[in-house]
Amino acid sequence: MLLHLTMNLRTLKLSDYRGKYVVLFFYPMDFTFVCPTEIIAFSDRVEEFRKITVRLLLLAVILYTLTFAWCEQPRKTGGLGKMNIPLLADATHSLSKDYGVYLESEGCSL
After folding, report:
1. Region at 81 (left for phi over 0; alpha for psi -120 to 50; beta for the rest)
2. Is 71 a catalytic residue?
3. For the chain (length 110 residues), average pLDDT per consecutive 10?
4. What pLDDT score does 63 carry?
5. Cβ pair 86, 5 in contact under 8 A
6. Per-residue burial over 64-94, b = 16 or more CB atoms within 10 Å of its CB, e = otherwise
7. Residues 35, 71, 80, 88: which is the catalytic one?
8. By CB count within 10 A, which of 3, 40, 67, 75 is most buried?
9. How many C-beta neighbours within 10 Å does residue 95 have?
10. What is the pLDDT of residue 70?
């Protein structure tokens, strides 16, 4: 799994968040018109979650280069713009399968 924050890529482990609650937010794919609303809402309210020791991680079964492009696109044209939470790429689909949200027939997570 790769973590993308302003194009810094690193491997992320859930143990990095020991002692905190973690919300894994799976979304099906980048550049859709439904997902940005929820993703942006989570990002804009990240401080509220941090105050109660909750960390948000967004995850899609997509290559990180597409996610980066989606973040670079302004919100008014369907992009995510500046994000305050990590976006993760599950290119091998292993996490999505482990959590039971991978749709094999669609090639994406729920």
Report:
1. left
2. no
3. 56 86 82 74 95 90 69 85 84 83 73
4. 61
5. yes
6. beebbebbeeeeeeebbeebebebbbbeeee
7. 35
8. 67
9. 19
10. 76
